[in-house]
Amino acid sequence: MSVGVKVRDKESIDRALKRFKRTVGRSRVLRDYRKKMSYTKPSEQRRLDEKRSVRRRHRRRKNSRRPRR
Fold it and tell me: Which candidate, 37, 18, 41, places its Cα nearest to that of 29?
């Protein structure tokens, strides 16, 4: 998966670079790259998944208790 940005007419390099960084961030290329750079043991992965699900559960509960306006 490649991410690219074409520099528009009369657009500064700084602006194009900012647009490129935003595009890369949204495409999750760096996240996947970093994830593949290191090995995570299955037990460690299960522990992290459990932590993530607990966090998600707490967030959902917190948001559901909030009174609606």
Answer: 37
